[in-house]
């Protein structure tokens, strides 16, 4: 398989997952998430690049790399939609470009972002784009997304 | 595990209804795949579909009585209207996943509201018909995660 380069982007704040412990997702660290993703990618022969940044400008650069150098994108954008300083257009236009290249894009969240005790996070808005969405499965949100990416890549 | 896969209105038209959104796979084919995947993993999967809200509520109540381990529910259009399904799901204490073939958040604004998301453990959307088999495939792992989640929640 040649088209097997997957970019996984973790947005601002995800370097510290301790707040999720309080919500009942167990003791999770981003390194545990990375290891689990690496294991699943290895099963399917996917080349994974797992990144995290707290810097929105860097995140935009990652997305542009996603357009140019990768075959699929999984993104945990955290609370991008309620952070006032962020230009939503960067997310939606970059992600739309990736989907237009017929590359799978899946938004993941560790917690269920619609439950009342979760901060007001909203799903990414990419009108007309094809973006998968997995929220609330803990570390398995990534696992399920990788399986879905693999299935889509093998169909392309 | 005993699993109910509950499907709402118009899902019986899969394959012919707006295939550009919902794909070409029929409900019968999805149902067969889910049951087969379940058998492989030792699950008893009951796959059902109804165009009637009350019948769906009845099935959820039945899942409570029968102590079913997990519900995967694609409530389709009732997602955006049904307080009755919300209430029934709230009363069901097993593991519950809301599933959609397309991603409702990228479609008409009337699909952006879900009465179900806040009362389920997780949401999986926009992965096409494959979303069903991906969820069934991971259900055993997911249930473990859910038990862990509740265990740690109970310690507060």
From TrEMBL, chain A:
<dbReference type="GO" id="GO:0019631">
    <property type="term" value="P:quinate catabolic process"/>
</dbReference>
<dbReference type="GO" id="GO:0009423">
    <property type="term" value="P:chorismate biosynthetic process"/>
</dbReference>
<protein>
    <recommendedName>
        <fullName>3-dehydroquinate dehydratase</fullName>
        <ecNumber>4.2.1.10</ecNumber>
    </recommendedName>
</protein>
<feature type="active site" description="Proton acceptor">
    <location>
        <position position="25"/>
    </location>
</feature>
<dbReference type="GO" id="GO:0003855">
    <property type="term" value="F:3-dehydroquinate dehydratase activity"/>
</dbReference>
<dbReference type="Pfam" id="PF01220">
    <property type="entry name" value="DHquinase_II"/>
</dbReference>
<dbReference type="InterPro" id="IPR001874">
    <property type="entry name" value="DHquinase_II"/>
</dbReference>
<feature type="active site" description="Proton donor">
    <location>
        <position position="109"/>
    </location>
</feature>
<keyword id="KW-0456">Lyase</keyword>
<comment type="pathway">
    <text>Metabolic intermediate biosynthesis; chorismate biosynthesis; chorismate from D-erythrose 4-phosphate and phosphoenolpyruvate: step 3/7.</text>
</comment>
<dbReference type="InterPro" id="IPR036441">
    <property type="entry name" value="DHquinase_II_sf"/>
</dbReference>
<comment type="similarity">
    <text>Belongs to the type-II 3-dehydroquinase family.</text>
</comment>
<comment type="subunit">
    <text>Homododecamer.</text>
</comment>
UniProtKB/TrEMBL annotation, chain B:
<dbReference type="InterPro" id="IPR036441">
    <property type="entry name" value="DHquinase_II_sf"/>
</dbReference>
<keyword id="KW-0057">Aromatic amino acid biosynthesis</keyword>
<dbReference type="GO" id="GO:0019631">
    <property type="term" value="P:quinate catabolic process"/>
</dbReference>
<dbReference type="GO" id="GO:0009073">
    <property type="term" value="P:aromatic amino acid family biosynthetic process"/>
</dbReference>
<feature type="binding site">
    <location>
        <position position="87"/>
    </location>
    <ligand>
        <name>substrate</name>
    </ligand>
</feature>
<dbReference type="InterPro" id="IPR001874">
    <property type="entry name" value="DHquinase_II"/>
</dbReference>
<feature type="binding site">
    <location>
        <position position="111"/>
    </location>
    <ligand>
        <name>substrate</name>
    </ligand>
</feature>
<comment type="function">
    <text>Catalyzes a trans-dehydration via an enolate intermediate.</text>
</comment>
<comment type="similarity">
    <text>Belongs to the type-II 3-dehydroquinase family.</text>
</comment>
<dbReference type="GO" id="GO:0003855">
    <property type="term" value="F:3-dehydroquinate dehydratase activity"/>
</dbReference>
<feature type="site" description="Transition state stabilizer">
    <location>
        <position position="17"/>
    </location>
</feature>
<dbReference type="InterPro" id="IPR018509">
    <property type="entry name" value="DHquinase_II_CS"/>
</dbReference>
<feature type="binding site">
    <location>
        <begin position="101"/>
        <end position="102"/>
    </location>
    <ligand>
        <name>substrate</name>
    </ligand>
</feature>
<feature type="active site" description="Proton donor">
    <location>
        <position position="100"/>
    </location>
</feature>
<dbReference type="GO" id="GO:0008652">
    <property type="term" value="P:amino acid biosynthetic process"/>
</dbReference>
<dbReference type="GO" id="GO:0009423">
    <property type="term" value="P:chorismate biosynthetic process"/>
</dbReference>
<comment type="pathway">
    <text>Metabolic intermediate biosynthesis; chorismate biosynthesis; chorismate from D-erythrose 4-phosphate and phosphoenolpyruvate: step 3/7.</text>
</comment>
<comment type="subunit">
    <text>Homododecamer.</text>
</comment>
<keyword id="KW-0028">Amino-acid biosynthesis</keyword>
<feature type="binding site">
    <location>
        <position position="80"/>
    </location>
    <ligand>
        <name>substrate</name>
    </ligand>
</feature>
<keyword id="KW-0456">Lyase</keyword>
<feature type="binding site">
    <location>
        <position position="74"/>
    </location>
    <ligand>
        <name>substrate</name>
    </ligand>
</feature>
């Amino acid at each position: 398989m040649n088209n097997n380069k997957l970019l996984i982007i973790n947005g601002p704040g995800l370097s510290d997952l301790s707040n999720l412990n309080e919500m009942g997702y167990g003791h999770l660290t981003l390194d545990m998430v990375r290891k689990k993703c690496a294991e699943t990618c290895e099963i399917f022969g996917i080349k994974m690049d797992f990144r995290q940044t707290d810097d929105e400008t860097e995140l935009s650069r990652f997305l542009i790399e996603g357009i140019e150098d990768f075959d699929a994108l999984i993104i945990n954008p955290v609370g991008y939609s309620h952070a006032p300083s962020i230009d939503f257009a960067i997310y939606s236009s970059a992600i739309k470009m990736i989907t237009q290249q017929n590359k799978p894009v899946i938004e993941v969240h560790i917690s269920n972002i619609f439950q009342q005790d979760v901060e007001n996070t909203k799903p990414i808005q990419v009108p007309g784009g094809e973006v998968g969405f997995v929220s609330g499965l803990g570390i398995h949100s990534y696992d399920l997304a990788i399986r879905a990416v693999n299935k889509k890549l093998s169909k392309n | 595990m005993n699993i109910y896969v509950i499907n709402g209105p118009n899902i019986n038209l899969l394959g012919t209804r707006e295939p550009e959104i919902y794909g070409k796979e029929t409900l019968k084919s999805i149902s067969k795949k889910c049951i087969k995947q379940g058998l492989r993993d030792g699950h008893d999967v009951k796959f059902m579909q109804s165009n009637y809200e009350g019948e769906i509520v009845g099935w959820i109540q039945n899942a409570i009585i029968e102590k079913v381990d997990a519900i995967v529910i694609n409530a389709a259009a009732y997602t955006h209207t049904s307080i009755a399904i919300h209430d029934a799901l709230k009363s069901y204490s097993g593991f519950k996943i809301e599933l959609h073939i397309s991603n409702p958040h990228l479609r008409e604004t009337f699909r952006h509201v879900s009465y179900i998301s806040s009362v389920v453990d997780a949401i999986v959307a926009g992965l096409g018909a494959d979303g069903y088999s991906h969820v069934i495939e991971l259900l055993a792992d997911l249930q473990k995660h859910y038990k862990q989640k509740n265990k740690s929640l109970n310690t507060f």
